[in-house]
Amino acid sequence: MRQKQLRLITTFHTTADALACEKACKAQGFSGRIIPVPRQLSAGCGLAWSCEPELEGEFAGFLKEHQVEFDEMAVILF
Amino acid sequence: MDLAKNKTTLLISGAILGLIAVILAATGNPGNMAFCIACFIRDSAGAVKLHTTATVQYFRPEIAGMLLGAFLIAVVTREYRSTAGSSPMTRFILGFIMMVGALVFLGCPLRMIIRMAAGDLNAYVGLVGFVAGIGTGIVALKRGFSLGRSHETTAAAGAVLPVAWTFLFILSLAVPALFALSESGPGSMHAPMILSLAGGIIFGIVAQRIRMCTIGGIRDLILTKNTDLFAILAGFFVIMLIGNLALGKFTLGFSGQPIAHAQHIWNFLGLYAVGFAGVLAGGCPLRQIILAGQGSSDAAVTFVGMFVGAAFCHNFGLASAAASAEAAGGPSMAGKVALIIAIAVTFVIGFMPKKK
């Protein structure tokens, strides 16, 4: 079984925003991957972006720069 | 107990839901139907006389139970969030389209799994269409399709559907003469009320905790390679399969299946429409009920779209006929035309050029 580790999880208001984030990250070589929204963060069933917690400060700016609106960011064990 | 702790607990949770369906089928619900969201919404629409097809009229306690179960558990776990404002009328149309597709196939995606577990090969044809529809929806999402974000609204707004539906259900028990009740056909076949209600409540609670969604399970598999939601469906399928084998209700084949037809192209297209419209609406018919229960007015509008859609399907002869010894069954000409239009409308919704 995969070992859980601290990750920076970014959730979005819409699935389109999550996929836009993935597209921007892949194009710019920003690390991370798209995941289903962790249950402890939302009762929804949308998508989220998971990346290293150290990127917390930088990632919000990156999303703003690429005009991707996000809901919240949280560092959790995932 | 955390039902969503890991894949094993998700698999077990899916199996518990499958067991509920097996028990309800064994105690009176129609064969191979057991726990079909589309069929139960359609029967409920008939019960309040939105349509007058005499064989499919019964205010199904399962739907009331699911809404109530999801609502109560969301309140208890503080996950109740009253939200609204994400393209309500488009959601209404998508709900309507899901119901047209489901009633051409003769079942929602949950019944597709139930039929698959009973050996109905027509359901496997439907599965191919369902996955293709989800795939088309994902392409639309990747091209930027969005219904827009929802916003927090007054706490009471999100409770309107669960409360109103519970009121209707109590009314159906207190003054049954107000409601239509089938004397023959699928609507007349049902488990004891208290068992159906309890099954629905437990189903609603568990499905809310584990985020069960037939579309989400396949969408996540395609988009993220994550199998969490798929594990639930697998657990549901396996327990249904075991139940059918144990009860001698497993019959492998295209013909002789209860409340089904073998018109392959229409089985494919019916669930194609459900998968496609469901991805755009953010969840399958089952998931819409759970989301509505936990406070989403947007999901409630999608539910109402399905409810009205079911009535239209029967009033305008769009629902398919089941195959019998005398007839091959399948959709009417009106049903075929409606489904083609429904798919075309879904394409327009999903691929309409965005304003820059």
Compile the SSE list and pairings.
The complex is a heterodimer of chains A (78) and B (356).
Chain A (H helix, E strand, L loop, with lengths): L5 E6 L3 H14 L4 E4 L10 E5 L4 H10 L6 E6 L1
Antiparallel strand pairs in A: 1-3, 1-4, 2-3
Chain B lengths: L6 H20 L10 H11 L13 H16 L6 E2 L3 H18 L3 H9 L3 H22 L8 E2 L7 H15 L18 H18 L3 H11 L3 H19 L17 H18 L3 H9 L3 H19 L17 H19 L5
Antiparallel strand pairs in B: 1-2
Q: In percent, how helical is the residue content of chain A?
A: 25-40%
The tally of structural domains of chain A comes to 1
Sheet with most strands of chain A: 4 strands, antiparallel
Question: Tally the helices of chain A: what do you get?
Answer: 2
Mean pLDDT of chain B: 95
Largest sheet geometry of chain B: 2 strands, antiparallel
Shape of chain A: globular
Q: How many angstroms separate the termini of chain A?
A: 12 Å
The helix content of chain B, as a percent range, equals: 55-70%
Q: What structural class should be given to the helix and strand makeup of chain A? A: alpha+beta
Overall description:
Chain A contains two helices and four strands. By secondary structure, chain A is of the alpha+beta class. Chain A has one domain: Alpha-Beta Plaits, CATH 3.30.70. Chain A has a four-stranded antiparallel β-sheet, covered by helices on one side. Chain B has 356 residues and is mainly α. Chain B has one domain. Chain B is built from 14 helices and two strands; from the N terminus they run αααβαααβαααααααα. Chain B has helices spanning 7-26, 37-47, 61-76, 88-105, 109-117, 121-142, 160-174, 193-210, 214-224, 228-246, 264-281, 285-293, 297-315, 333-351; strands at 83-84, 151-152. In chain B, α3 crosses α7 and α6 runs parallel beside α11 (264-281). Chain B is globular, with a radius of gyration of 19 Å. Chain B starts with 6 loop residues before the first helix and ends in a 5-residue tail after the last helix. The mean pLDDT of chain B is 95. Classes of the chains: A alpha+beta (78), B mainly alpha (356). At the A-B interface, α1 and β2 of A face α9 of B.
